[in-house]
UniProtKB/TrEMBL annotation:
The chain crosses the membrane at residues 59-79, 99-120, 164-184. SUPFAM superfamilies: ISP domain. This is Cytochrome bc1 complex Rieske iron-sulfur subunit. The cytochrome bc1 complex is composed of a cytochrome b (QcrB), the Rieske iron-sulfur protein (QcrA) and a diheme cytochrome c (QcrC) subunit. Belongs to the Rieske iron-sulfur protein family. GO terms for molecular function: 2 iron, 2 sulfur cluster binding; metal ion binding; monooxygenase activity; oxidoreductase activity, acting on paired donors, with incorporation or reduction of molecular oxygen. The keyword Transmembrane applies. GO terms for cellular component: plasma membrane. Residues 1-44 are annotated as: Disordered. The keyword Ribosomal protein does not apply. The lineage of its organism: Bacteria, Bacillati, Actinomycetota, Actinomycetes, Kitasatosporales. Keywords: 2Fe-2S, Cell membrane, Disulfide bond, Electron transport, Iron, Iron-sulfur, Membrane, Metal-binding, Oxidoreductase, Respiratory chain, Transmembrane, Transmembrane helix, Transport. InterPro entries: QcrA_N, Rieske_2Fe-2S, Rieske_2Fe-2S_sf, Rieske_Fe-S_prot. It comes from Actinacidiphila oryziradicis. Residues 272-336 form the Rieske domain.
């Protein structure tokens, strides 16, 4: 039993061409065959000089914005104090200096990148080029072709023609490196005399950091380790962290006959010696004391100091001995300092010598 239906006439237009049949056959054999590049479509800027100039002004505006942001970055160091705190929603309370530095530098770098991308996408040549693979070592003809392509690319980029873009790009690129120069200044406080002096001075009482009471010689027993701060340093004062980072003190009592260094013995009081608690490697607080050997160990990088021999370094990366504080007893029987440390505390710095 056969079925019949309507028949439509077949014309040559409805038949696939030989090229289409060949392409279908290639795809059937290799479904990942290279389909080739689509026809190139010119951008608006390629055919409309008015649009090209608008893109040029946009790129120049971004580069100019980068220059302004870089200047704002540098100005932030002069205008905003380090301890100025502001509230910014939703970030909360943050340092106005850190916020201004981050925002200005981020805008400066983003504007250069955005300007370069917009320049490439709207004004530089976007025609696709196919280059066959070749050996790593280029022949003279290939080298000549590369140079020719470079010259052609430079010409198509319109770098020489678009002077506004060129000049603003040079301005942005020349100013951004200044941010690194300014950051070098903020790697630490300017030494001047800040690192050479602490709160210790002649007549300052040694205050037990645990009890907040002045220390007497009888409070320090042989083999014990006591931490002390100068009289007048309170935890609620604004610069407490900065001051204790320089003035923190270790008090140890050693039998006078076991003290090897003469100056250490002269600067002690009945075997009670006072040394800086700040490690001379990277400034970690020292807190581990070995009674039998009179060694103290920094827990950060294991620098070891001999407190019976001028606190010299006997192991680890520390560069020099712990500074000693000369002490005595006042008329009321309390331990007091006879001056400041003999040298700057903590790690070495350029002007230390």
């Amino acid at each position: 039993m056969s079925q019949t239906g309507s028949h439509h006439p077949v014309s040559e237009e409805t038949l696939p061409s030989e090229l289409e049949q060949a392409h279908q056959g290639e795809v059937a054999e290799n479904p990942f065959a290279d389909p080739g590049l689509p026809p190139h479509e010119p951008r608006r800027q390629d055919i409309d000089e008015k649009a090209a100039r608008a893109s040029e002004r946009t790129v120049a505006l971004l580069f100019t914005l980068s220059m302004i942001a870089t200047i704002a970055f540098i100005a932030s160091f002069v205008i905003f104090p380090v301890d100025k705190i502001i509230y910014i929603w939703p970030l909360g309370h943050i340092s106005v200096l850190n916020f201004s530095l981050g925002m200005s530098l981020g805008i400066a770098l983003f504007a250069i990148g955005a300007g370069a991308v917009h320049w490439a996408r709207t004004l530089m040549s976007d025609e696709e080029m196919i280059a066959e693979r070749h050996p790593i070592e280029a022949d003279p003809e290939t080298k000549a072709q590369v140079l020719a392509d470079f010259a052609q690319g430079a010409k198509e980029s319109q770098f020489g023609r678009r002077k506004l873009i060129r000049n603003t790009l040079f301005g942005a690129l020349s100013l951004v490196p200044l941010t690194g120069v300014v950051l070098l200044r903020d790697l630490g406080p300017l030494p001047q005399q800040k690192l050479r002096h602490t709160l210790w001075s002649a007549g300052k009482l040694l205050i037990n950091q645990n009890t907040n009471k002045p220390l007497r010689p009888e409070d320090v027993t042989v083999g014990s380790l006591t931490f002390a701060v100068p009289d007048g340093l309170a935890e609620d004062q604004a610069d407490f962290a900065e001051q204790i980072a320089k003035a923190a003190l270790m008090i140890i009592r050693i039998a006078p006959e076991n003290i090897k260094d003469k100056r250490e013995r002269d600067w002690a009081y009945q075997g009670i010696v006072a040394f800086s608690k700040i490690c001379t490697h990277v400034g970690c607080p020292i807190s581990l004391y070995e009674q039998q050997t009179h060694h103290v160990l920094c827990p950060c990088h294991q620098s070891t100091f001999d407190l019976s021999d001028g606190a010299r370094v006997i192991f680890g990366p520390a560069g020099h001995a712990l500074p000693q504080l000369r002490i005595s007893v006042n008329s009321d029987g309390y331990l007091e300092a006879l001056g400041d440390f003999s040298e700057p505390v903590g790690p070495a710095f350029w002007e230390r010598g």
